[in-house]
């Protein structure tokens, strides 16, 4: 048997000796090497389903597809049914040119094959595709203290921070292998010390800040460190209701994409901050004050990557990460009200609200609300807006969004929510 620094159980040693087959041997070897790279001393059991970040059957991923076939051929699957990030294309709900469709079909030509592989390895169901799998409609809802093995950055930071579960920002495919083994390396956010905060972030804005802009400021400042955030309870209250969870979902996604935050604590709000307060701060922590001026500076620093700065937007994407049911209702109501105030019947800019398939299905049960949304010219889509923009034909278009995550990973132009409302109703006004 090879020598490893990690403390292994007899069962784990037997697996590495090939006693459960070559495929399982490779699974554990990969996990052990990954863990040792981060200083993990042992493996610990996973308490809940994994969430897989790799959702796309992209050209050039042959090594992944071959590995999946080997795992399936060995009769392996995850201990519990899992969820996966959003599908990369949605021709039915997003208007697509023939040129764009051709590129997408070529770019994701293995999508059907890959989804079949995912199903054989334990995918929860055919609609279990969302970056926000922790929503009750999707069903991969962790509990506080549970050890997870997730990789999607916006899901990891929500599970760690808002729920109080424990997951590292794992590499794609590693989370799948951990799900098959039922164990994950113990390091980082799985340890008490690894959940301490190195930054005190004091929010001192005159009003409730935009969550995506606030998250961007925090992420760019603290990078991968954990912040302890004060002041938000005074602006938003301290109840973890749907409105608060939506705010923290979007804020967290921006901290994770504009930086690499995997955990934050909100004073008097998130579970560990309620229990431990400022004892979560390490000795010698740094302080960052966010006021109106700081947010204005951050907003002004964003580059605009459009070829024509004054172009009329082709699309507006709202929902990166995926919207909650509460957010769909809020956007539907706000768009309808703004249209009526403007004396208009439909939005001027093609607008797509992105959400999990199960969340969309739930919203559609409300026939009156769904009819309002469709009559106003708005579409619902299950796709990932960033994956949509990975198509070079699509990225040529001037796209606007309220998502700082989408802005970071694409050529989309970021606007605050109220600005987005004004643009989609009245057309270009910048």
CATH class of the largest domain: Alpha Beta
Q: Which strand-content bin applies to the residues?
A: 5-15%
Largest sheet: 5 strands, parallel
User: Percent range for helical residues?
Assistant: 40-55%
Shape: globular
Side-by-side strand order of the widest sheet? 11-10-9-12-13
Number of strands: 13
CATH topology of the largest domain: Aconitase, domain 3
Overall pLDDT level? 97
What's the alpha carbon Rg, rounded to whole Å?
A: 22 Å
Query: What is the total domain count?
Result: 3
Low-confidence stretches: none
Kindly, what is the distance between the CA atoms of the first and last residues, rounded to a whole number of angstroms? Answer: 65 Å
Derived from helix and strand composition plus strand pairing, the structural class reads alpha/beta
Protein name: DUF521 domain-containing protein
Keywords: Iron, Lyase
Pfam families: AcnX (PF04412)
GO molecular function: lyase activity
């Amino acid at each position: 048997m090879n020598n490893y620094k990690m403390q292994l159980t007899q069962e784990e040693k037997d697996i590495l000796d090939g006693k459960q087959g070559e495929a399982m041997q490779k699974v554990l070897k990969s996990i052990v090497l990954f863990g040792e790279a981060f200083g993990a001393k042992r493996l610990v059991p996973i308490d809940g389903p994994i969430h897989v970040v790799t959702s796309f059957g992209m050209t050039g991923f042959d090594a992944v597809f071959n590995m999946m076939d080997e795992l399936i051929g060995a009769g392996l699957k995850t201990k519990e049914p899992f969820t996966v990030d959003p599908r990369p294309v949605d021709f039915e709900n997003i208007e697509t040119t023939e040129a764009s469709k051709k590129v997408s079909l070529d770019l994701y030509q293995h999508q059907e094959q890959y989804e079949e592989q995912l199903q054989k390895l334990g995918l929860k169901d055919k609609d279990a595709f969302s970056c926000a799998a922790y929503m009750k409609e999707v069903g991969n809802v962790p509990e506080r203290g549970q050890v997870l093995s997730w990789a999607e950055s916006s899901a990891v930071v929500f599970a760690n921070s808002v729920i109080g579960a424990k997951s590292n920002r794992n590499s794609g495919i590693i989370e799948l292998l951990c799900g098959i083994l039922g164990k994950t390396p113990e390091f980082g956010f799985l340890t008490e010390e690894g959940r301490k905060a190195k930054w005190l972030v004091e929010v001192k804005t005159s009003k409730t800040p935009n969550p995506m802009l606030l998250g961007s400021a925090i992420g760019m400042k603290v990078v991968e460190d954990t912040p302890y955030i004060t002041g938000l309870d005074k602006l938003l209250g301290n109840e973890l209701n749907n409105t608060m969870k939506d705010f923290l979902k979007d804020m967290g996604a921006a901290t994770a994409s504009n930086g690499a935050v995997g955990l934050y604590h909100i004073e008097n709000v998130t579970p560990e901050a309620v229990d431990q307060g400022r004892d979560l701060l390490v000795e010698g922590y740094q302080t960052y004050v966010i006021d109106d001026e700081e947010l204005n500076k951050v907003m002004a620093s964003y580059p605009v990557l459009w070829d024509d700065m004054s172009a009329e937007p082709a699309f507006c994407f709202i929902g990166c990460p995926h919207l909650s049911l509460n957010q769909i209702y809020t956007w539907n109501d706000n768009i309808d009200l703004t249209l009526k105030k403007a004396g208009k019947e439909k939005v001027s800019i093609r607008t797509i609200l992105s959400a999990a398939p199960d969340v969309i299905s739930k919203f559609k049960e409300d026939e009156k609300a769904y009819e309002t949304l469709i009559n106003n010219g708005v579409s619902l889509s299950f796709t990932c807006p960033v994956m949509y923009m990975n198509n070079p034909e699509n990225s040529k278009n001037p796209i606007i969004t309220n998502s700082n995550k989408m802005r970071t990973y694409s050529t989309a132009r970021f606007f605050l929510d109220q600005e987005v409302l004004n643009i989609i109703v009245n057309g270009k006004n910048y």
